Amino acid sequence: PLWIKTLSLLRFYKRKHTRPCLIRAVSGDVEPLNKAAELLLSVTDKTAQVVSMLGECLQKAGRGEEALKVLEEAVAAGILTSLYQRPGNLTPGLKGQPIWTELELPAIEFTPEEKDALVQAVIYKGLFGEMEGGNTKEGVWGYFGLSVNGKWLSEECKAVPDICKKLKAAGYGTVGKTYVSLLYPSSSTYPHCAPSNEILHLIIPTSGTTNLRIADKNLAISEEPVVIDPSFEKEFSNEGADATVMIVTSVLHPDL
Asked: How far is CA 204 from CA 40, 101, 243, in A?
């Protein structure tokens, strides 16, 4: 049963400090998340990791007000440095802002034909898998990887060769991940934070309009690229009639 798996993950956390809330409510069943939250509440040493995981469990269980209270109290107590920026590993001294509007990055443009080929390859040929992390709240949140830690994935790039070629020529794909993210209509994610604040994300929309709430900012990503710090709490949704597709590529934090 899922709740037994959750308990096992929590016991593993106590030994290895992993995350126990990498699960989603299945068919409205939030009991595993509630059990995880109760066990995290019982932890006496409330570190930043414990508080962040507790907030994640409560949010996924639909207990948003409780999650906000826990996080606000942790900020007031000095356990967390920020209400919204909560990576698993926070590198101190790096400038933190949810949206980077003045960061100069290599320009990259895709033709309508290249964008259409991407949509055809990823959606209609069904090449994508489920986004990892258990943060899909409703519907389908798909993932199609192009590069990992500076290594381009040759087989995946065969499906969209022009996309990979242009990204590589512009100097992207040297750190973190480069991937295609897609959201089916009426799909949404839970609030979530990236594991590190050392990486920013350049988001390049290729089809549809994706709604993004990051920290206390709301964006509609449809035409222009956006640079965000994914270590800030964020959630995506698609309220349109068609699937939305975005290219996401990692760039090193400018302070590094």
From this structure: 37, 14, 15
C-alpha–C-alpha distance, residues 46 and 65, integer Å: 19
pLDDT digits (tens, 9 = 90+) for 240-253: 999 999 999 999 99
List the one residue out of 215, 178, 176 whose CA is nearest residue 199.
176
- Asked if 57 and 40 touch (Cβ cutoff 8 Å), the reply is yes
Cα distances from 63 to residues 4, 60, 185, in angstroms, run 21, 7, 25
CA distance 170 to 179: 15
**Of the candidates 241, 205, 234, which has an alpha carbon nearest to the alpha carbon of residue 221?**
205
Residue 173 to residue 16: CA distance in whole angstroms: 30
Q: Which of 237, 235, 236, 133 is nearest to 191 (CA)?
A: 235
17 is written with which tokens?
A: 């400090």
With residues binned 3-state (H G I as helix, E B as strand, rest as coil), the percentages for the chain, rounded to 5, are: 30, 25, 40
Euclidean distance between the first and the last CA atom of the chain, given in angstroms as a whole number: 44
* Selection from 99, 101, 86 nearest residue 192 by Cα: 86
Q: In a 3-state reduction of DSSP, which class is residue 251? A: strand
- Taking the C-alpha atoms of residue 34 and residue 28, their distance in angstroms, rounded to an integer, is 12
CA–CA gap between residue 220 and residue 23 (Å, rounded)? 27
Taking only the tens place, the pLDDT of each residue in 199-251 is: 999 999 999 999 999 999 999 999 999 999 999 999 999 999 999 999 999 99
Residue 11, CB-side half-sphere exposure with 13 Å CA sphere:
6
Task: Please report, as a single letter, which amino acid is at residue 160.
Answer: V
- pTM, rounded to two decimals: 0.87
